[in-house]
Amino acid sequence: MKKVSILVPESAVIEAVADPQYMFSVANQFLQANGEQPLFEVNLVGLNHEVKFNNGLFSVHTDYILNDAIETDLIIIPALFGNMKTAVDLNRDAIPWILNHYNKGAEVASLCVGAFLLASTGILNGKKCSTHWAFYNEFKETFPDVDIMDGSIITEENGIYSSGGANSYWNLLLYLLEKYTNRDTAILASKYFAIDIDRENQSAFMMFSGQKNHNDVEVKKVQEYIEANYQEKITVDDMSTMVAVSRRSLERRFKQATDNTIIQYHQRVKIEAAKRSFECTRKNISEVMFDVGYTDTKAFRTVFKKITGLTPIEYRNKYSKNI
Question: Which architecture characterizes domain 2-203 according to CATH?
Answer without folding.
Answer: 3-Layer(aba) Sandwich (3.40)
